[in-house]
Amino acid sequence: MSAVLAHRARRRLARDRPALAALASLVLVALACLIGPFLTGHPPERIYPDFVRVPPSLAAHPRSDELRPALQRLAFRMRASLEDVAQEGERVRLTLTAPKPIDERSLRLLPRSGLFGEAQVLERSADGRRLVVEAPIRRLYFLLGTDALGRDLLTRCLAAGRVSLLIGLTAALAALLIGVAYGAVSGLAGGTVDALMMRVLDILYALPFVFFVIMLLVFFRAGLWLVLVAVAAVEWLDMARIVRTQTLSLKSRDFFRAAIALGAGTGTILLRHAVPNMLGPIIAAATLLVPRVILLESFLSFLGLGVQEPATSWGVLIAEGSRALESAPWMLAAPAGFLVVTLVALNRLGDGLGEALDPRLQRGPDQRDSAGR
User: Could you tell me the Gene Ontology terms of the biological process aspect for this record (predicted)?
Assistant: First the structure.
């Protein structure tokens, strides 16, 4: 019977085009976050001092007007002066002069800058104080611009998505396991045990979440694992209430009473009768739990209590972008766009799963199939 119900749920979900569009959007976002940072051509931590707060553009950098300032800064670090610059296609020829002989090892600064390839010395004066050097120009693209340190914002958003999705899925999974076990045991036990377990939930509900996180920071260092522990420690409360309510409803069903009458153990009843019959509401609630966790992590990171550098998340990027909203609005728009798309898609997918897995919402052909069987 469960296979039949699963087949009908898949059919109902397949007819829900907004839910399928949300699922496709989530798959694209997840694949982009996993593979994208390797394809952008920029390591997430790579800093380009010459391109700080560059606006989003399809144009390649460095442009012709950006070559001389970049080369002047590199020449200064070489302890030399830039006498002349000439661009020939995708290569640049520069003339360096200095009061002392120029050490050719300093030319390594050109490829290290990320803007140029390996340099070749074309001419060298007898005293070594004048060099004519040629190097290929590397073309850099910043499709979503750069941040306040000169890091590619697209790469940062994709790398941050890994952390945000990891926190959302891991914390939601932990909350799912704890909440299902706690709620099922409470509903199945009933009586005094149920009342006592519910009062424990009430006490935990009364604890302010931010105060709880601050207390954790007193004993532990802020970081990714602290966020996971803090979020998972509170997000299972709602799941426990949902599962308890479903368990109390199932206890009045004949198959549940028959299992108890036949002497089935508590573990068997939970695993073979309670949890499978609550799978629909549980999956729907878990899907809606992920965006709540991501949003909560973003809130903590915005306050500076969440993910810390060098790691990053959408919440951290949004916090950085809010501080540069007037001068560089793209720093806020880029991570906020990723976050909004993910949250909307997760919520819509959760609604679709809830409708597809709820047998009371069967319509049309499904009802006729049920009657025919």
Answer: peptide transport; protein transport; transmembrane transport
CA nearest 305: which of 232, 207, 224? 224
Same domain, 199 and 81: no
Tell whether 212 and 307 lie within a shared domain: yes
Which of these, 62, 47, 79, lies nearest to 135 by C-alpha position?
62
pLDDT of residue 213: 77
Q: Is the pTM of this model over 0.90?
A: no
Same domain, 192 and 135: no
Is residue 46 one of the residues assigned to a domain? Answer: no
Q: Coil, helix or strand for 324?
A: coil
Residue 25 binned pLDDT confidence (cut-offs 50, 70, 90): very high
User: Residue 78: which CATH number?
Assistant: 3.30.1360
CB neighbour list of residue 157: distance below 8 Å, 6 or more residues apart = 144, 314, 317, 334, 335, 338
Pairwise pLDDT comparison (361 vs 84), residue with the higher score: 84
